[in-house]
Write a structure and sequence with these properties.
alpha/beta; Rossmann fold; Helicase, Ruva Protein, domain 3; Zinc Finger, Delta Prime, domain 3; 49% helix; binds zinc ion
Length: 548
Amino acid sequence: MPYVVLARKYRPRSFTEMVGQPHVVQALGNALEQQRLHHAYLFTGTRGIGKTTISRILAKSLNCTGADGQGGITAQPCGVCPACTAIDADRYVDYIELDAASNRSIDEIRELIERAAYKPSVGRFKVFMIDEAHQLTKDAFNALLKTLEEPPEYLKFVLATTDPEKMLPTVLSRCLQFNLRPMAPETVQEHLAHVLQAEGVPFEPAALRVLGRAARGSMRDALSLTDQAIAYGAGRVDEAVVRGMLGSVDRSHAAALLEAVTQRDGVALLAHVDGLRQAGLSAAATLEAMAGVLQQAAVEQAVPGALDEADPETVTARTLASQVAADELQLFYSIVLHGRPELALMSDEYGALTMVLLRPFAFPPVGAPALVARPARPQALRAPAPPTLVVKPPPAATPTPVAHAAEPAPPRSSDPALGERWNALVTGLVQAGSVSALTRELAWQSGLEAIDHSSAPPTWRLRVERETLRTQPLADRLAAALVDTLGTPLQITLEAGLPSDSPAQREAAARARRQREAELSVHNDPLVSELLAQFPGAQLVPGSIKPL
Ligand SMILES: [Zn+2]
């Protein structure tokens, strides 16, 4: 017996076998049960999700005569009567499928309309199915309109399209529209497990997870890929084989790269990229896998516990979610997503990949102090470098005064002994690398408001404004780092509100002071004064002076 491909063998033959489209199945089932039949249906959705399959089941439902030959219109076609078997076998004279991608001209539509004039040969209804209907020419559409509007009672139209935006509004308004949804990877995975069990093919669940993602919502593609995987794996579907076949990257590589990126660890990053090169793993697939992990981590941050517990990659996403701030996560996601087209622009795709992954290094982590970024020194004090001076042509008769940016007021603490101490402690922790990621951000953005010695151990009361930082696990991690440093036990409670004196506020005040000093030094520079006098209309461009 010849091998029948899985996509064909497991093509649903009834509404109950349809996977992943319950809303369409229910609506059509109800309409059939209640005999409320529309004369034209439009199925929209991406390729391979069941538009043609639903059309065939609908044609069977309309024409089924039942096992005993006495049946009428039904939502559960019998599958054994002449109409059902002929439609399943592609040889029912009253069911006509036209692929508008290759038959798009007015002549083909005219021929179809001529056939509409004759009553069904064997069935109750003629069903005309026009696939990829958006590809019909404008003339062909116009020729179809009249029949579509007032078809004979024995005629039903089914239009299918992957691109409803390109359909004429006059056609859309004459059809009952159903949007078929891309299938979730979990739905695909479940169905593949069912198919492989029925086929007696051994498989690893992780392999089906990879196939489910690669199918991009299309069950037909998923089944075709599974066919290939069985051939590759000599009758087994294993994760390693599937990954090899798809050129997809094990997400443990993605996790390792993400760790290097989030920790700004250049050495580890280069080593991992080199590992990918040695293993011949695709740079594009690497970025895709990284985007997948980042997306899951963002979901975990927004809705804790929403990820699939059975997915082994959930652990990676959770770890990332607890280590990286939400805004940083979005930044990384954007960088890896938009980095993909750049890979093709360079002859060495791994070189391009390295460049993309080094991009986050250019953005210091949120809340990072200047001392880990670069030293601050007003530019004008760096002799002999000239100040930033842009000479603009007249007519400005007098130099425009430089606008000073509003600067944050220096922080005030209710207990200045505490503010100093907290700032020194946090700076020490950050310099020593004892706190990282979100814990570092909590320390940096909070203020120590009070220490309550009446409890055991003493309670340090921290105030922080950002809600995402006010979590007990972060407080516990910070407390552990402080205990390590101070050698005495303590606990931390967090309260909401603007801290009276935080390291972040001190840093902002210091930055403003450096800016003011830099601007003053440029304004007082004799060379600048001379240049301004020499060139009437010349001005110092506001915002162009920056402390280094
Ligand atoms: Zn039947």
